[in-house]
Amino acid sequence: MGPGLIKAVLFDFGQTLVDSAQGFRQAEKAAQEKVLKDLRRSRPNLPRSAFMERYRELRRRFQAQSDFSRRNMWDAVADAFDAVVDGQQLRQWEQAYWQTVAGQTRVFAEAMNVLKRLRAFYRLGLVTNTQGQPAAATHRLRHYPDLASRFEEVVVAGCDGIPPKPDPLPFQICLERMGLAPADAVYVGDDWRIDVCGAGAAGLKAVWIKHRSVQRRWPDVDTAGVPVIADLKGLWDVLV
């Protein structure tokens, strides 16, 4: 990319600046048990294996559509088994889900120092998906004011009329607000489809962060032309 060519660095939030992997695992496990228990009120002989097969299928489908609303997905699971889940119950489950995620979220150890150092040379922006929160003001970024203050612009995609990543529009909106062209910035994110491919569709150079402390199954893809880093400190090798 070379010195002087990049004016700004844009970031994703989850699993890029903060680690929520353990929180999501715990929240998912608890949610699955709640949904299965509720379904068994009307279908007492529902096998766990059949439930989990359909649950995972629908979760993959929602993720592929960049629909991260847990309520919508759980409602679809219930519908798949000809059952109905009370809307108030779904809202309570979703609230508990995000409380679990928040309680297990940690800012990556190097994040604040790296962002502080980057600000001396680059402008910083953030483009993140809503993950089902109804508005930008309710995104979980609000729990990290010190982190949020590092960014000149924050775009929460998937709400307030902005389509979710990987649609190129959220990236374009951030660039427009900052008065930048795609060639002026690089985007850093953890999700190959949503972040790397989405940024590329918007004309941005992308950096794929596969953080060494995150336990997950990374997709096996051809990364030709896309730098891969194991933590945020690796950005310095990419940017210079």
Task: Summarize the topology.
Layout: E1 8-11, E2 18-19, H1 21-42, H2 48-64, H3 70-80, H4 87-103, E3 106-107, H5 111-118, E4 123-129, H6 145-148, E5 153-157, H7 169-178, E6 185-189, H8 192-201, E7 205-209, E8 228-229, H9 235-239
Parallel strand pairs: 1-4, 1-6, 4-5, 6-7, 7-8
Antiparallel strand pairs: 2-3
Helix pairs in contact: 1-4, 2-3, 3-4
> What is the alpha-carbon Rg in Å?
19 Å
- Gross morphology is elongated
Instruction: Measure the end-to-end span.
Output: 7 Å
Structural class: alpha/beta
Number of domains: 2
Helix-strand string: EEHHHHEHEHEHEHEEH
- Can you count the beta strands? 8
How does this model look, in words?
This protein is 43% helix and 13% strand. It is built from 9 helices and 8 strands. By secondary structure, it is α/β, with parallel strands linked by helices. It has helices at 21-42, 48-64, 70-80, 87-103, 111-118, 145-148, 169-178, 192-201, 235-239; strands at residues 8-11, 18-19, 106-107, 123-129, 153-157, 185-189, 205-209, 228-229. 32% of the residues are buried. Helix 1 (21-42) packs antiparallel against helix 4, helix 2 crosses helix 3 and helix 3 (70-80) crosses helix 4. It is elongated. It starts with 7 loop residues before the first strand and ends with a helix. The mean pLDDT is 93. It folds into 2 domains: 8-20 and 106-239, HAD superfamily/HAD-like (Rossmann fold, 3-Layer(aba) Sandwich), CATH 3.40.50; 22-103. The protein has a 6-stranded parallel beta sheet with strand order 5-4-1-6-7-8, covered by helices on one side. Strands 2-3 form a two-stranded antiparallel sheet.
